[in-house]
Amino acid sequence: MPHSLVLNLLPQSPIPSGYLSGKHIHALFLTLVSSVDKTLGDRLHAQKTEKAFTLSPLQVSATSNYRLQWEHKQVIEAGTPCWLRISLLDDALFSNLTQLWLNLNPSHPWHLGPANLKIISILGTPQSTQPWANFCTYK
């Protein structure tokens, strides 16, 4: 059953536009996973072909039509609420990552390039202001 999670973040320092590409978001996600389950983080990092997850680019606001922003040409300033969507395509991966969401240290600064980020929340169900978090069956 696919799951879409939304990771809400607050930059504590500016995020340069050069660190907003997919490889940096991917590195952030693997760092988060490895902080709680090093073996799982290493396994996900070692996958060379299809991945059991996808990551959206970092988003700075929900628009009225809920289209995802795919690139940033400017710095994201400190204090700008951001989020990213994590889609999990494998039930086993979702159950393995449950411990991640429960055990992440929200006061620990996470890094996206030179920027420090604070995790505000992780959503697993749709909210009135954030419909991107959800789950469904493959049927």
Helical content band = 25-40%
E-strand count? 6
Oligomeric organization of the protein chains? single chain
Overall structural class, as computed from helix and strand content, comes to alpha+beta
Q: Please give the CATH architecture.
A: 2-Layer Sandwich
| Structure annotation, total helices | 3
Mean pLDDT: 85
H/E series: EHHEEHEEE
Global Rg: 14 Å
Largest sheet: 6 strands, antiparallel
CATH class bucket: Alpha Beta
The proportion of strand residues reads: 15-25%
List keywords for this structure.
Alpha-Beta Plaits, alpha+beta, 6-stranded antiparallel beta sheet, 3 helices, single chain
Concise account of the structure shown:
The protein has 139 residues and is an alpha+beta fold. It has three helices and six strands; from the N terminus they run E-H-H-E-E-H-E-E-E. Helix 1 runs antiparallel to helix 2 and helix 1 packs across helix 3.
